[in-house]
Amino acid sequence: MSSPSKRREMDVMKLMMSDYNVETINDGLNEFNVEFHGPKESLYEGGVWKIRVELPDAYPYKSPSIGFVNKIFHPNVDELSGSVCLDVINQSWSPMFDLLNIFEAFLPQLLLYPNPSDPLNGDAASLMMKDRHGYDQKVKEYCERYAKRENTMKSTTEEGSEEEEFSDQESGMSDDDIAGHVDP
C-alpha cells in the first residue's frame, strides 16, 4: 500500500488531469479549489461553484474537508460557511474513495437529491418542504446571482488587477492612455 502522501499526490493529479479546473493554494497539494458545475437536468444546471478542498495529513484514511466558496441555496449546505452535510464524506468515508468520487458522484447526488430532514440550512429545508415552487425559484435566483463562472476561479492577483482597472476608470484614464494596451 502506498503512503498517504503518495496517494494524495495521485488523487490530486487525477483530478487535475480530468476535466476539472483546479487551483492550488500556497503551491501545495493539501489545499485547493475546484471549479464544480451543477448537474445537468437539475435546478443547479448552469451554475458554477468554487469548492474548497482541504486534505488532512491522514488522507485517504481521513476524509477531506469540502465546502462551497460562493453561495448556494441548498438544505444540506451551510449558507454562511459553505460546509457540506454529506454522510459519505462526514461519517462513512473510506480510503477506497478518491477526489473524483466527490466531484463526479457525491456532490452531484447531493444537489440532485437534497435531504431537508438533515439540514445545515434550515431556511432552505423549510422552504423546500412547505413551498417547493418558492424553493425552486430561490435556488435559480442564487444560481443567477452567485454561481456564474466569472465569479468563481479568480486568484487574488486577478482581483487586484480589476481593482486597479476600476481605479483607472475613476481617475479619468482610458485604456488608450495605457502604453501597449491592445483592445480585445
TrEMBL record:
Q: Which residues form the UBC core domain?
A: 1-148
For this entry, list what GO says about its biological process.
ubiquitin-dependent protein catabolic process
Q: Which Pfam families match?
A: UQ_con
> Could you say which EC number(s) this protein's record lists?
2.3.2.23
UniProt lists compositionally biased (Acidic residues) regions at 159-177
Question: Could you name the domain of life of the organism this protein comes from?
Answer: Eukaryota
Q: Which residues act catalytically here?
A: 85
Q: Where is this region: Disordered?
A: 150-184
GO molecular-function term, one example from the UniProt record: ubiquitin conjugating enzyme activity
The reply on keyword ATP-binding is yes
The protein's matches in PROSITE patterns, at most eight in alphabetical order, are given as: UBC_1, UBC_2
Name the Gene3D superfamilies on file: Ubiquitin Conjugating Enzyme
Alphabetically list the UniProt keywords: ATP-binding, Nucleotide-binding, Transferase, Ubl conjugation pathway
Protein family: Belongs to the ubiquitin-conjugating enzyme family.
Q: What does this chain do?
A: Accepts the ubiquitin from the E1 complex and catalyzes its covalent attachment to other proteins.
Q: What name appears for this protein in its UniProt entry?
A: E2 ubiquitin-conjugating enzyme
